[in-house]
């Protein structure tokens, strides 16, 4: 469950770790967190949910770094297949 207080706390913790979340990025970050929550809920019944979430996180970051923000549909399909 998310509420405004949890969101503000999340942003404060990000800033404490020197992660700047500009106002224009907050909406995108919120969308990302909602998508992760949906994925987590779908995986909740699996035996190794922690490993699954770690793999998604690691593969997503690696994909973004490899593509440097420029990607097409086939590159996205490759990363989803890998996950």
Can you describe this structure?
The chain is mostly helical. It has 2 domains: 1-45; 47-83. It has 4 helices and no strands. It is globular.
Summarize the model shown.
With 83 residues, this protein is an all-alpha fold. The protein is 76% helix and 0% strand.
Keywords:
single chain, 83 residues, mainly alpha, 2 domains
Please specify the SSE layout and strand pairing:
Elements: H1 4-16, H2 23-43, H3 49-67, H4 73-82
Helix pairs in contact: 3-4
In terms of quaternary structure, what is this? single chain
Q: Could you give the distance between the termini?
A: 26 Å
Q: What is Rg?
A: 15 Å
Low-confidence stretches: none
State the helical fraction: over 70%
């Amino acid at each position: 469950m998310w509420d405004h207080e949890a969101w503000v706390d999340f942003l404060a913790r990000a800033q404490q770790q020197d992660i700047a979340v500009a106002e224009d990025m907050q909406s995108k970050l919120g969308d990302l967190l909602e998508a992760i929550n949906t994925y987590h809920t779908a995986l909740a019944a699996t035996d190794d949910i922690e490993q699954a979430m770690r793999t998604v996180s690691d593969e997503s970051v690696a994909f973004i770094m490899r593509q440097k923000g420029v990607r097409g549909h086939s590159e996205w399909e490759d990363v989803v297949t890998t996950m």
